[in-house]
Request: fold
Amino acid sequence: MKIMWYVLGIVALLLIIGGFLLIISAEDFGRPIDFTKPVLHDRPNQYLVCPKDYCADTPHEFSPTYTISAQELRTLFDQALIPEQRLIKIPQNSDGTTSTYQQSSAFFKFPDRITVKFIAIDKSTSSLAIYSRAKYGRRDFDVNKARVKRWIKRLDKQVFEHLAKKQSTGQE
Reply:
């Protein structure tokens, strides 16, 4: 009998937590992101990376500039994400310069949404803006920050290898 009360207590607690998570979920989770307008909210469970003077919000860090076209950058970015687990690309109507992804946590399957804008600076120079945010809760233990930094590191490697290959084959 005592075990049944413990089980009922745990079920009730889970229902309360689930309801609480729905109440405090990110309002912007489903809407398209426009980096030229404010996107950051008051909760720390988000991370924004932008080129200098591109985003309306002050980013957590500035994104690198790459000596490749925005289209090449997008292709290499997709290749850099291949090792990621529990990641899906969200189909959206866009001008082809923005991609949105959803990645879920391993244990609880909490979804995070990541929006990436590929920015053409000129014909052969590009950068990107990345906004990674949790749908639920207030804190994320720097998961979004770690993800964005990991993705940029993988992208840097992809770009380096791409440029080295172009140089070795004389395609510059």
Notes: Residues 9 and 94 are 46 Å apart (CA to CA). The domain at 28-168 is CATH 3.30.310.220 (TATA-Binding Protein).
